[in-house]
Structures are given as structure tokens and as C-alpha cells.
Amino acid sequence: MEKKKVVVVAGTRPEVIKMSSVYMELQRSDLLEPVFLSTGQHREMLAQAFGAFNLVPDHDLELMKPGQDLTGLTARVLQAVGAYLEETRPDAVLVQGDTTSVLASAMAAFYQNIPVGHVEAGLRTYDMQSPWPEEMNRRLVSPLCRWHFLPTEVSKANLLNEKICEASCHVTGNTVIDSLLWMSNKVNAEEDRSVAVAERLNIPVFFRENFLEQKDKRWILVTAHRRESHGGGFDDICKALRQLAEDHPGVGILYPVHLNPAVREPVMEQLGNHERIALVEPAGYEDFVWLMNRCYFALSDSGGVQEEAPSLGKPVLVMRDTTERPEGVEAGTCELIGTDPKKICTAARVLLEEGAEYERRSQLKNPYGDGKAAKRIRTILEASL
């Protein structure tokens, strides 16, 4: 019997990370043949993520252009993915999350009457400006899909409230936990990586010797890049990080800085001369998991970090005003603090100075899955294609 062809689309680093476990699981199927399609929305970070899983895309549309705006990118993805699907006629298309590649690819499949599965469906803030434009993207994708692969019951309830058919809603857990556990086992089985990681990310020797290589030294892992923080939000984040370093002289801060100039320029200008604040290159997934395993806690505006860090026993302070991942906040593994410097410093001080509270929050159960989401997705597709 001929296998059903399933196109797995990814355009950004987080999509590759969250879809790699799905792609590898579908490769084990006797009924399905996965094809990894890269839109190339993010160039350098995309290649980095594929390499971490020893994968290469089966087809790369290479759509990224310098200084690309959302209008142009959306049009290019819609046209290029549409042409690819028209030529190859797969049996299903899988998209993940809420990027421009997700929306345009889902539309392209819909126009070709090819059924769409949405991995990590049902996330909502119900604020179109936060996160922007991701909230709009995921809300427009949902009505186009035949399968909604949901990380939690909360995300299922969101879709049911929007009159999405319950029979198409499948709570699978989040595939990022599958990928995280796979990668964490891989890096933990290796010898100490501190020198190699420091060289790859340009981590200063002082920081490596005084923090990465000292098991009893505490340091905070920072990620911040969201569009809604560009400008004043990043100024506030930088003020908070500098204040944190001043208030806690024994604590280090490591910040892999996003390549976007709107992020990189203010961060380098305001934080580039502090000995205990290491501004480093964006980390590949392997190295980032290694860093998460070793930090004291994470200070982040990333959705992925909200899901991943709790599986490694790391509390997360979320530098956003809203989150489409309320389960982590309700469980206590994540705390929503925005970008106000006073709030950031106060929340960080609790984790750094109140040992019992830190221990409580680092031992809470991750609400986002058990590492078997990809297997559930495979089973559903095998039964319905």
C-alpha cells in the first residue's frame, strides 16, 4: 500500500524544534511518509535548529530577504508554498504555532483543498496586539484546519468556545517537551560542554570560569526578543538587568541576544560593559538546553521557554503583559511580570533570596506534557488519513 504523504512545514527555529519530534515519529510509520518543508523565514537560526537534530529539510524554499516586512513575507510564503503543494499534491499539511509561515502555509493548503493539521493549536491571549502579530495568525489558522493538536485542556476549551468542532480537537501535550527530553538526554550523556559552548557563543572567559564552571555559583538565563517590547520595553528590560546585577553582586546574567537589530542595538549599547552580564550569540538548541539545565532560573519573553524550563526544574519569570500559556502561571512554574524594571527586580529577588519559595517553584509539575505528543499525533493521522 502506498504511504500517505504528509508535509511538515517549518519557517523558524522554534517551529523546527517543535516539529522535529513529529517528523521523526512519522518516519517510523508504515502508513505515512513525512516531507520536511522549510520556508526559510529565519535563515541562520533555522539551519542551527535542523543541525541539532541531525536533520536537513527535504525541500527549502529559501524565502528570507534582508529587512523583510510582514506583508512581503506573507505574500512570498503563500505563493511559494502554494506552488509547491500544487506540484506535489500531498495528503496532508502540518503547521506549528503562530508565525507568518504558519498562517500563509495553512492558507496555501486550504486553497489547494489539502487537509491541515495545526500542532500547538488553541493558544490565546484574546489581545490582538499582544503578542503581535502571532495572536492574529493563530486565530485565523484555526478555522482552516481538519486536526487541532492541542497542548492542554485549556487550549481545547478555547477552541470549543470559538465553535470549533470537538471531534477535530485532540489534546496531545506539547511536542516541545518531546524534543526537550530527547535533547536533554543527549547533552547530559556527554562530557562537560562549558568550554565548547563558551567558544561557540563568545561567552567571556571571566563568565565561563566564574559561573559556568562553578556549580555553586548562580546565574540567570535571559531571552527577550518580542516585537511588542521593541523600543521602550527593551530599555526597561536593560535597566532591570543592570539593576539586578548591581543588587546581587554574586549573581551572573547570561543573555543570548537575538540577531534582530531592533533587539541587538539597545541591548549592546546599554549592557555591553558589565563584567557579570554576558551578552552572547544566539544559542543553538543543543547549547540552549545545556544552558537551561545549568541556570538558576530563566527571565524570558519566549513561549518555548515557558514550556521547557519547568521540565528541567527551572522557574520562569515571564517579561510579558499577557501570555497564551496560562497553564504555567496557574501551576506556579511561571510568573507573569511584564517589563517594568521594579517588577522584574522584585520578582527576581524573591527567587534569589527566598530559598523555600525557589524550591517550591522548581519542583512543580510541568503542565505541558509527558514527552509523548508526537506519538499521539502519529496515531491520529494514521487512523484518519
CATH superfamily of the largest domain: Glycogen Phosphorylase B
Strand order of the largest sheet: 3-2-1-4-5-6-7
Bin the helical content. 40-55%
| Count of spatially separate domains | 2
Under CATH at level 1, the class of the largest domain stands as Alpha Beta
| H/I helix tally | 17
Structural descriptors:
15% strand, Rossmann fold, globular, alpha/beta, 385 residues, single chain, 7-stranded parallel β-sheet
Describe the structure.
There is one protein chain. The two termini are 13 Å apart. The protein is globular. The mean pLDDT is 92. Helices cover 48% and strands 15% of the residues. The protein is α/β, with parallel strands linked by helices and 385 residues long. It has 2 domains: 4-174 and 369-384, 3-Layer(aba) Sandwich (Rossmann fold); 192-362, Rossmann fold. Helix 14 (326-331) links the parallel strand 12 (316-318) and strand 13. The protein has helices spanning 13-27, 44-52, 70-88, 100-111, 134-141, 153-161, 175-188, 194-201, 205-212, 232-247, 261-271, 285-294, 303-308, 326-331, 341-353, 355-362, 373-384; strands at residues 4-10, 32-38, 59-60, 92-96, 116-119, 147-150, 169-171, 219-223, 252-256, 277-280, 297-300, 316-318, 334-336. It contains 17 helices and 13 strands.
Task: Note the topology.
Layout: E1 4-10, H1 13-27, E2 32-38, H2 44-52, E3 59-60, H3 70-88, E4 92-96, H4 100-111, E5 116-119, H5 134-141, E6 147-150, H6 153-161, E7 169-171, H7 175-188, H8 194-201, H9 205-212, E8 219-223, H10 232-247, E9 252-256, H11 261-271, E10 277-280, H12 285-294, E11 297-300, H13 303-308, E12 316-318, H14 326-331, E13 334-336, H15 341-353, H16 355-362, H17 373-384
Parallel strand pairs: 1-2, 1-4, 2-3, 4-5, 5-6, 6-7, 8-9, 8-11, 9-10, 11-12, 12-13
Helix pairs in contact: 1-2, 1-7, 1-17, 3-4, 4-5, 7-12, 10-11, 10-15
